[in-house]
Amino acid sequence: MMRSGNIPSDKLLAMYASLLKIRRVQLKIEEHYHENAMKTPVHLCLGQEAVSVGVCANLKTRDMIFSNHRSHGHYLAKGGDLKAMMAELYCKETGCAKGRGGSMHLIDKSVGHFGSSAIVGGGIPHAVGAAFAFKMRKEDLVAVTFFGDAASEQGVFYESMNWAALKKLPVIFVCENNHYSVCSHIDVRQANYDISMRARAFDIPSMRVDGMNLLEVCEKSQAAIEMARAGNGPYLLECVVQRWRAHAGAGDPQKEQYRKTEDMDESRRRDPLKDFTAYLLDHRAAGQDQLDVVDRQIDQEIEAAFRFARESPLPDPAGLEKYLYC
Amino acid sequence: MPWTKIQVEKQEPVFDASEGQNVRKLSYGEAIREALDQALERDPRVYVMGQGINDPGGMFGSTDGLYKKYGLERVFDTPLSEEGILGMAIGSAMAGLRPVSIHNRPDFLLMGMDQIVNHAAKWSYMFAGQVPIPLVIRACIGRGWGSAAQHSQALQSLFVHIPGLKVVMPSTAYDAKGLLITSIADNNPVLYFEQRWVYKHQGYVPEDVYSIPFGEGVIKREGTDVTIVAVSHMVIESLRAAEELEKKGISVEIIDPRSLKPLDDQLILKSVAKTGRLLVSDLSWKTGGFSAEVIATVVEKGFHFLKKAPVRVAFPDIPTPAGHVLEEAFYPGVEDIIEAVRKLMGK
Fold first, then answer.
1. B211, B226, B243: which is the final residue of a domain?
2. Is the ipTM of this complex over 0.95?
3. Which domain holds residue B273?
């Protein structure tokens, strides 16, 4: 099922660590969400982790990413600080946005993440603007926007592609197509399911890939990013994924009421972490002992981050009006 | 920072009175053009864009020939995609540029409201001041020649309502240049509203780069009986009305706040403390508008100064009609101000 690639083993191991970290962080969030201490809507990307990891594995620190409401994977895959993220989910003063943003508005400028928008499609033109700045300054950087299938229904998606194509900007449009806009399936929303083909109207190269396959996402996005970095303009990468949980919150308590029958079939469920782990072991890219070390480190890091978040102070209400202007 | 060492001016030394005086005069459009020119020259991060800005007309002269001087990389035409273009401007600001986005009419900004209200206005607060969005949005309010309901809207009140935005409305060439320099130098999103008819006016404009601080209004005319707070083109209408009223023995003080947000409420309160009577004319509809905000502020902070209930000279709450007879009936002007002031004075 997995294809073999020419990815060096240290990169493979780093991707494993990133994938595992995103998975475990989210399971941990889910585990504790019912305590009502994280008083912010969480949009878990369980099942979709391979897209963030595969794309960000090919980015430099100063490359910029533009995320959305389902923000955890992008932030962590780009190298965002876990403690600051967890503190933000607990709406603490030590959070990455000092408790002003919450789960949907993560930021870590030190890794090229300048803030995620929770307006569906809203971050797409920001990536185009960053790419415009890179080109104007003749910098060797790219911008990536992550968005969902519902964002492809917004006019701004097409406006952004048009401008990016016209100016040949180094921007990668990464669509994570999980087929659901909250509870509405794509078949009640879109006339043609193939989002990747819409780039053709702007002469933008594009591809539809299996977003549950980390190696495929990594290889295809690497090619797209290299092309953009070399000055060949934008690329649209549609990654078909499965959203394991509800639109927001823990679990998927109403799944019987909105999911397609085939999406309810557990035997069709794919797991990018399980598949990638098997690949690493089968191809001797990493040994079980190496993976165990990574596992332990990640668990410790997550424990420390949750502890930090819980023990951190809440924002002082006296600071309510701070930060309105820069 | 190229913007920290510039001359700060607070009040135009001569207004309209420059007639016959030996000073350099520019039109409103030329003043804007000069501000853009100097900003582009001073700061390589500044760029200027908008649909039609490189047209032969140069956006009523306000962008004339700038692309020839600075190249199409920094002064360029855009597709008519307000949402996408404003979002692009915001993204470029995150990456360190200082965009000036020009829009023919505020009516078209409504297509870009998501990026203005949900994004530009929120980024500073939502991310605890980590990412400035130094974005200037210029738009020119239309009037006349049957511009009708979709090419004449003065929408400043919508933007004044939104925390995180700043809103300015220069009424003279002098203020147009100084406020545009301040807008470009500011680290926050600024809505800069022009009005088509103030483009007709010329006035003294210094050649140097100068800024006019936000939140500092000016007294355009001193008086003792009635305070008029007027905005943009209504400043000019009010000055004309004041001349007529003077002949009738009524002394009018005219305040141009210049920036609607932040607002110089102290200047207004000080004037009302003197006159006890307030008229507000904000070049917009009556209901829920900026004029209501000014009156509410005065009532909250200076109720005891008021001898009479404040009044608004505003657009009637209907869309702008096209036909010139209806158009004339729609827009309040000198006569409406005179009548309202006389009523305030009980005359």
1. B211
2. yes
3. 218-344
